[in-house]
Design a protein that fits this description.
Elements (H helix, E strand, L loop, with lengths): L19 E5 L9 E4 L4 E8 L8 E9 L2 E6 L5 H10 L1 E2 L2 E2 L8 E8 L5 E16 L13 E7 L3 E3 L10
Antiparallel strand pairs: 1-8, 2-5, 3-4, 5-10, 6-7, 8-9, 9-10, 9-11
Length: 169
């Protein structure tokens, strides 16, 4: 067991974007080889309204939308992307399936510090795969890694504020 986490008030450097882990559902093992996650973004509609006797247009908070998140990785023998994407396709050997029980999952993204310890954690709620690229364009003359990606829709995300950076020694 590691040392307990406490806030490091002396940290001035930002965290690196290349140190992160992604988890699907309740798994304690990260998804293999994820190399890119698009940013978490939300926006809210603005509702303009007037009140009687007031010449100023007031602004109210409308509905909040959460943008889709894309995960990319080099193709490996790990089938986590394909399994989850196949729940949305609902085909079973070419015939539509009725099982959508595993369509929506919770997703967790951990941002790590230089020591490989999680310091920021985000929970993405009720996510499901809306797009899956199983195989990129293949080119025998190219010098590239085969990349697969999924685009996940979600119904919101939040930061887990119980996680803070460990104190430096």
């Amino acid at each position: 067991m590691g040392k307990p986490f406490t806030v490091n008030i002396n940290r001035y450097d930002p965290y690196k974007t290349y140190r992160f882990l992604v988890y699907f559902g309740n798994s304690t093992a990260p998804v293999a080889a994820v190399s890119k996650v698009t940013g978490l973004k939300r926006s809210s509609d603005v509702i303009d309204y007037k009140e009687g006797g007031n010449a100023i247009i007031l602004k109210g908070l409308g509905r909040t939308k959460y943008d889709p998140i894309t995960l990319e990785r080099g193709i490996t023998q790990d089938l986590d992307f394909a399994k989850w994407a196949n729940y949305a396709q609902v085909l079973d050997q070419g015939v539509p399936s009725t099982s959508l029980a595993n369509l929506r999952q919770e997703v967790r993204i951990d941002l790590l510090n230089e020591a490989g310890q999680p310091v920021w954690r985000f929970k993405i709620h009720r996510a499901w795969v809306s797009e899956y690229q199983a195989l990129p364009d293949l080119d025998a003359g190219a010098n590239a890694i085969a990349i697969e990606h999924i685009k996940i829709e979600n119904e919101g995300w939040e930061q887990d504020t119980t996680l803070t950076e460990p104190k430096e020694i």
